[in-house]
Amino acid sequence: MKSKVLLFAAVVLLPLSLMQAQEKSSEQNWPDRTVLPIEAYQKVGKIEPNIKDSDPIEWPKEISAPEGAPNVLLILIDDVGFGATSTFGGPVPTPNFDALAKNGLQYNRFHTTAVCSPSRAALITGRNHHTAATGIIMEFSTPYPGYNSLVPKSVATIGKILTDNGYGTSWFGKNHNVPDWQSTPAGPFYLWPTGLGFEYFYGFLGADAHQFRPSLIEGTKPIDPYLVDGKVDPDYVLDKDLANHAIKWIQTQKAVSPKKPFFAYYTPGTAHAPHQAPKEWIAKFKGKFDYGFDKQREMTFEKQKAMGVIPKDAKLAPTPKDYQKWDALSPNMKKVVAREMEVYAAQLAYCDDQIGRIIASIKDLGELDNTLIIYIMGDNGASAEDPTGQGLTSEIGIMVNGEKDTEEFMLKNLDEFGGPWMQEHYSQSWAHAMNTPYQWDKKIASHLGGTRTGMIISWPKRIKQTGQIRSQYAHITDIVPTILEAANIPAPNSVDGFKQTPMAGKSLVYSFDNATAPETHNTQYYEIIANRGIYKDGWLANTTPRNLPWQGHPIPSEDPMKDYKWELYDLKNDFSQVDDVAAKNPEKLKELQKAFLEEGRKYNVFPLDDRYIDRVNPENRPNLNKGRTSYVYHEGNSRITEGMAPNMKNTSFNITADIEVKAGDEGMIITQGGYFAGLALMLQKGKPTFAYAFSHYPQSKWSIQSPTALTAGKHNITVNFDYAGGGAGKAAKVSLLVDGKTVATGDIPKTVPSRFSADETLDVGEDFGTPVNRTYDVPFTFQGEIEKVTVNLK
Which residues of the chain have a pLDDT value below 70? Predict the structure, then answer.
């Protein structure tokens, strides 16, 4: 009998105890934050057919952030150089950036990749930009692994990691990380912010945005917040709108889940072109830059030394000879160029003011003490993408499509600078002044003017040595590891079943308590458009730029690996990269060149390619329209980005619209682009009209209109656009037909050769953003009915 009892214990009780042990082990191992997502854990008791015989059981434990994990506000500003802000000795007042520096730590050796999309990919993934397949901006992608713009599933974002670890996550402002051919309302959406793990997105997908009429997305839905009751709100400003949405989102998070930490990625388009700001803010800076950019660079350098943001023995890097000199400008052009800087300063100062509202709202919630704020002032150095030396009134018009700014036009329209009908960009030399004390600018990854920007980290609960400077080497890939260590969350090994590529960056938490702690990020390569460099243990080896920052169509090198000269700098003793010591240290240069080759192979940097705008042709990338010559659209088919719209540039085409109207109906039938370059077929007071804009210049706008209005009923409207050929941007003849009969003709002496817009789209039955000309305004919704619109390319 005793043996039977023992046998029963062995057969029944032992497995039961094993199950209990396994359950206890499972509970102890939960959550495993190295494998994402994390399934809820439930301890299950006895379950019988009847509830009265079953044990009460606990609700499943859903994942939550580690105890004490901070809120995170990650701020990234666009196209701001190291020497732009008051915080780093510059002329633009940024009191909220200043305040964080006093209550946090100021990093004066922080580095980016030197251009937009790559920096942003590195920031949100913690990997090098080529690892994230973003070796260049999205519109210029090529099929190679480091450049194809398709972020691999082995490279999870901070949004995905924190969401799966119990944070509420959001993204406000600029994206510029969606592949060009995936950025329409038809998707796919897996590389949009919400597809990359961010729970909420409110912003724009492209390189830039109009401050007064932006093309915005909420989640994956296009929206137009500047329209109120079908009319443009004259008081709308994008930076204010972004701040409002960020504040509301944070307040909602804490109202509903006060113990749940939030992660807000706030990245407005400021201060990328177009430079636009409220009039009252521009007025604050009137006359404050009349001394010019050369003097500004000297003033900033002296102030940086006095403030201690650069060492006392630092040198002011020389300005490359090709940049515009202030004294070479005429008195009238000095007025124009000074005004450009007034607008830039106003835009950046206003943006900082709106960020101050967000920070104040966090303080009002009682959450500031345990909020980690990382404020990066520039995803690259300031932009010198002005080929004229006198600035631009439209980046798309002047730099991309070849319009010529005139002194007469710029002077006449000075009061319009910073407003909705200008998209100016300041002089190349203002950009260079904003990058003081370094040489070169955005796009030049080989030099600190392109890569080094200002950063502040504030975390009152944790950082006690406030108001200090940290000079350890830091890189944009270090931000994700810093956030993860602060939150006590490991970098995941697996996400959604995909093994993860290790982080390239290093956490900066080690520097919080020790200004002299040895730096942990000892090696870092740079590469953009074949400008390249390698940092290693205080040394920087880099190539000499062959092309200037404002050259959109540089002559490509036959062999970028061999055609670039190399320089060498000892940054331990040469803070601002001034003294080239390559001739004195040939072996050290060879060592670093070898290191670059190793890093390049490791991180998918090759092949090198020094083309720029020449890569933009959508035919170079995946395109559902490849080989297609006929497109049929219906009313409401809108927000179709240029890369996925019919390419109505440098070719003949016709547009045919089948519509039904009442007498006097008007509105937009189909449009692409807008005021700064675009075309539109519409009814104006019932009259069929074809409008074309080569640029924003009045003499570069044309309109072909029927002399009579349509009668009530169904009609067929056709535009025949006969391109002259013989190259890009040539002339065209236009004929306008109603029900098969020609009603008007006209000549367009020059056509858009490269791009209608960076942000405006193809829209049917309505118009968003800016109108092609100012004889109407958006949304100009079609009052009749559109059966279909067909575009045929010839």
Answer: 1-26, 618
